Here is the input.
Amino acid sequence: MKRIIALVMAVLMMSVVFVGCGSASDSTSDLQYITDKGTLVVGITDYAPMNYKDDNGEWTGFDTEFALLVGEKLGVEVEFIEINWDNKFLELDSKSIDCIWNGMTITEEATLNSSVSDPYVENAQVVVMTAENADKYTDADSMADLSFAAEAGSAGEATITENGWANYTAVKAQSDALLEVASGSSDACVIDITMANAMTGEGTSYEDLVQALKLNTEQYGIACRKDSDLTAKINEIMSELKGDGTLEALAQKYELALVK
Here is the structure.
């Protein structure tokens, strides 16, 4: 009798274990978590032409419109939250946000700390300075003694370090790096070419600033939590939007080069 009872108890215990394992597996679906709460929370910074506010104070830009299209396909609302870019992966892991979608360069750091989507926009890091100084500096070596500004935790900051430029100031956003140069606090800044195209030169907010040197080429990706199944879903939707021409039209609207 004791053996029968022990056998029954063992079977019951195994059933509990299997049920528990099934629940744990279900809870690991990031996509289900987002669809259940009905909101995709997107971490951004104020960065034209990717995410910035229009005259009515509403978020717009390539990444904003792209994220809204994905949210529509997922059947969820999209909420945009400004984050400290230097803490972006901490924000992601803590579930303060569900993805980083703000002209994020695909780097080794990004792929180690998150699940990164397929690339979607071409980018580069460029040196921006005043037009009167640009002709004096033709290569990276000639800029060694300049003072730079870059967004903390950005690809621009990493590029400054890679070039051995020790004199630089880390600021909160790429737009702040432009302000550093415009105010004369820094000789130059390193920012994304997408922002430089939109915000410097004739007819822009910074007419006296120009691109002096292109330092590299990069691509943008969207960061989700590590091993998140949301990444595959975003890639699937991205492929659809590329296939029907929606993303190409959006890229042309914001004068960006789409990854083919």
About this structure: The chain has eleven helices and 13 strands. The first helix runs from residue 2 to 27. The CA atoms of residues 87 and 153 lie 8 Å apart.
